[in-house]
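Quick one, tokens below:
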């Protein structure tokens, strides 16, 4: 009972999870799922990865409930679908450092082509904003992705990342789109 209360609170006495992939008999996910962590680098297996993006999923709450953290080493991309441990009654949070997460599922996206990028939280499915959407799109200079090569949805009810096959109803914004503004525009 006490351990359940502690997991839901911000803590200053945090112990890094002792998780590695030393045992080849155990799958990657079995070693890291549902293990509380503060930083992805707390996991030995992710020490050499760099953070690319962290999309927060609020799921109609005042505090983020989930995140889609993209990390990368060379051309090896991993999405960590995690759930936060934040008390609903806590005042508005400006900084998520010190709040525990636990990994619900992972998505491994190796060997992107040079013309591909991963985006998350920038798509809509059937005209509904999808902060839980992940897509591999072809790079474009335009605002809207012209070609979606693969897509997934992080299901907040099941805690699983599921592949999306019907791209006809999916539209994604190019998060790398740059708007040129000159001084004469003001």
């Amino acid at each position: 009972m006490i351990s359940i209360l502690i997991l839901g609170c911000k803590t200053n006495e945090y112990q890094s999870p002792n998780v590695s992939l030393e045992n080849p008999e155990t799958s990657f996910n079995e070693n890291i799922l549902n293990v509380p962590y503060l930083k992805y680098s707390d996991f030995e297996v992710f020490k050499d990865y760099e953070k690319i993006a962290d999309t927060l999923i609020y799921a109609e709450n005042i505090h983020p409930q989930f995140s889609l953290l993209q990390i990368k080493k060379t051309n090896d991309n991993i999405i960590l679908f995690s759930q936060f441990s934040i008390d609903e009654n806590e005042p508005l949070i400006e900084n998520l450092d010190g709040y525990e997460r636990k990994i619900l599922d992972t998505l491994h996206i190796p060997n992107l082509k040079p013309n591909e990028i991963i985006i998350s939280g920038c798509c809509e499915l059937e005209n509904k904003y999808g902060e839980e959407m992940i897509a591999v799109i072809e790079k474009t200079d335009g605002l809207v992705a012209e070609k979606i090569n693969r897509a997934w949805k992080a299901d907040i009810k099941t805690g699983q990342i599921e592949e999306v096959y019907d791209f006809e109803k999916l539209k994604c914004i190019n998060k790398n789109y740059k708007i040129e503004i000159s001084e004469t525009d003001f």
